[in-house]
């Protein structure tokens, strides 16, 4: 049982099954069956070791899946139960290990149906008999059932996590704009959640000082040249922004252990230099920004979304996505996909061949288990390279002109049909049904 693959080794035969290639696995009588794209591998005559192998494989598989989904740290709560969710015409049901982390709830079945449910996008959580239904802002719905006595502890721990996330957002707002009162910080946590894209116009209508501070960060950092141009080309009325604290700069432990070099005497300075006397951030070496920033603008005809990233230590980048003609419905999808990607921008621009290559197996696993990521990859329209402001603007205007105007549709392209779930077996329920078509339970 390796870190990234299961190795089958015999006297004259060896076979490695990478976890990203495993479609599913299930226990058999005294054995185990592992499904891959090329077929099935059957392990038999294992006796009592079969159950041990099944659990060990499940745990190793889950560790790899969590790594691909960007989940860090240990779970705050863990249990097993049944799940059900629908994605378009696909209805998925099964049994999974369920792990709650500080910012997400993970469904980890022994298959590719695993999902990461980000708590920051959770807009509804309701309990129906023996079922808990989670609804996200994008319309995604997930149902958990068969948890038994673990249902109440899960709800309590989930409430604590949601409260902690709101406190983090309020603290971040206070760091951006220290003049906010405690009540205003609580309100800011709802308008501009930590790590989630939000409309800046809505923030400005309620908390103008916070919106002004955010605009100041955007116009003075890495976006100093491109942000005014984006406001000019696209308008700032529909702008969305996202903010995260930048990770601490890693120091070299070997360099830190070495003695500091001796200070040079002031006499070696032959003449004063304006760069030497200038404060950090104005001239000379710029001071590092403590924030990760990204802004989202619509193209003039709203067929493209322009996403500008400003990440400390990385080159500024501009990515464009097709909106499908419906700007309002596309924004939640984009915010959800950016959060799921952990702002790893390359996951959108990779071709299918590059995504299938061995160095990108974790990204491939994340895309397979996150439909919004897959949808955004299909909608990726291109990237604008930052050479000079003039060339950057020219490339952007050329992409705007090449994108035809599309009439907005009433239904969002990424919508998920709203399903009810049976409180007894968790099966999706069709509209107007009086009894569950799977177990026959009478519906109320």
Overview of the molecule:
By secondary structure, the chain is α+β, with helices and mostly antiparallel strands. The chain is 33% helix and 26% strand. It has 14 helices and 20 strands. A seven-stranded antiparallel sheet has the order 9-8-7-6-12-11-10. A six-stranded antiparallel sheet has the order 13-14-15-16-17-18. Strand 6 and strand 7 form a beta hairpin. Helix 1 crosses helix 12 and helix 9 crosses helix 13. The radius of gyration is 26 Å and the shape is globular.
Question: How is this structure best summarized?
Answer:
33% of the residues lie in helices and 26% in strands.
List keywords for this structure.
444 residues; alpha+beta; six-stranded antiparallel sheet; globular
Helix residue percentage: 25-40%
**How many distinct beta strands?**
20
Shape: globular
**Beta-strand content:** 25-35%
Biggest sheet features: 7 strands, antiparallel
Q: Residue ranges: pLDDT <50 for 5 or more in a row?
A: 251-258, 260-287, 407-419
Radius of gyration: 26 Å
